[in-house]
Amino acid sequence: MSSQKYLNEIHKENQDWIKSLGFSEDELKSFENRLSEVVSKNTKSEVLARAEHFQNQFIRHHEVIDILKHDINAFEQTIVENAKQNNVATDHRKTDVNEDLTQRMSAFTKIWEELKDDYKKYLAEVL
């Protein structure tokens, strides 16, 4: 059974997700810059191997962010179409929540926080 929310609630949630993903992208850029500094100052194979691991994780996170942003924008478009079909009292109408997208955002947030923690520990060890 799918849950429902008001159109304006879903719209706000979508906008919050887009902002959160944008912030994660900014953090990723900062992390990548810092990782470049670490690599340029270290020649130990174990430091470089872990740096490569993080670089691969950062690349994957960029990909996931792009996919999530695309899917959120596509879902947002369905909300817009729903509102256009009957623009009377759109703030009082409910529609189905995209449970898959909600679960994917939750999983991304959890994995992203774990990666940030691991990366910070790595930086503390090598700097």
Mean pLDDT: 94
Query: Strand percentage, roughly?
Result: under 5%
Strand order of the largest sheet: 1-2
N- to C-terminal distance: 51 Å
What's the main sheet like?
2 strands, antiparallel
Rg measurement, Å: 19 Å
Q: Looking at the structure, what is the overall shape?
A: elongated
Structural class: mainly alpha
Tell me the number of structural domains: 1
Helix count from the secondary structure assignment: 3
**Would you report the number of β strands?**
2
The helix/strand series, from N terminus to C terminus, equals: EHHEH
- Sequence stretches where pLDDT stays below 50 over 5 or more residues: none
**Helical content (DSSP H or I, runs of 4+):** over 70%
Report on the structure:
- The chain has 3 helices and 2 strands.
- With 127 residues, it is mainly α.
- It has one domain.
- α1 runs antiparallel to α2 (45-85), α1 (7-41) runs parallel beside α3 (99-126) and α2 (45-85) packs antiparallel against α3.
- The longest helix is centred in the middle third of the chain and has 41 residues, at 45-85.
- The mean pLDDT is 94.
Notable characteristics:
elongated, mainly alpha, 5% strand, two-stranded antiparallel sheet
Helix-strand blueprint:
Blueprint: E1 4-6, H1 7-41, H2 45-85, E2 94-96, H3 99-126
Antiparallel strand pairs: 1-2
Helix pairs in contact: 1-2, 1-3, 2-3
Give a quick precis of the structure.
This protein is mainly alpha-helical and 127 residues long. It has 3 helices and 2 strands; from the N terminus they run βααβα.
